[in-house]
Amino acid sequence: QQEKEDLQGKLKLREHLSQTAGKSEATPAPSKNSDLEMKQLQCKLKNSNNEITKQLNTIKSLKNEVQEKEDRVRELQAKISRLERDLNMKRHLIEDLRSRLKANQENEKTSNETLESLERKVKALTEDCSSKKTSIDSLKQRLSVATKEKSQYEQMYHKTKDELEKKDLKLNDLESKMIETEYAMTELEATASQQLHGLAKQTGQALETIQKKLLLTNDKVEEFMTFVKALTRELQQSVQELRTKIKQAKKMGEVRACQKGLSQECVQLAASILNVSTTDLEEILEVEDDEETAKTKMEFEKDKEWLQYIQKLPEAQ
């Protein structure tokens, strides 16, 4: 800019000098040196103007780049803030999932503990039942012994009655003793019969419920097995039917394509070359490929294996 100002000052000074020289002299003749200097100064002025415009353009481009970079920085900062928010949300979600997992684990522990307690109760009940059975057996043995003793006492009573009619006092004592023993025996019999009746009721009810449940489960299992077997058979039959239909469609398409491609004259010519009739030639064209028959056999075998496997599954599990 300083160089431009100097050049402009020099140019103005030259113009002023030329004007003054023109006024002083009537027919002025501009010298060659001053013209050349004027041209040089104008060229320098143009160059400086061009340089200034270039510098201004570079400054504008740099400002635009700075503005773009600032916008990019703002976008990146906004993206970073969004990512931080997402990260915080994911952390909260992970913490929530961990708390849920802990709660589920605690619930599983409590359910396992309740299962163990129920198993212990079942074991205790089975042991109690076995002990009650043993006590019932012992009571039955006692009853049999008591009945035997009763029969023996009756026999002794009849013998003593015949032999000791004179001894009334002893007989009365024996009668009182017999009455006491009979009363005790009746009490024992009543208590034993009550216990036996209650146990029989309980065991009968439990057996009835278990039998009903077993019958229901067996019916369901049989229904499921029959359903699975019928379904597998139907699936195999439908697959085989579809395969046969696809093969027939392929055959018909190939035969039609072959018949369309061959004219009647070609067919007769081929029959005459092979020394066969046209119908035999059509049968030869309709013959299946060995690879295709082998493939169909393999597929049929695989279907049979699959059917056997599926029908064995419900029997195993």
UniProtKB/TrEMBL annotation:
It comes from Chionis minor (Black-faced sheathbill). One of its GO terms (biological process) is centriole-centriole cohesion. GO terms for cellular component: centriole; centrosome. Residues 1-17 have a biased composition (Basic and acidic residues). Residues 1-38 are annotated as: Disordered. The gene is Cntln_0. This is CNTLN protein. InterPro entries: CNTLN.
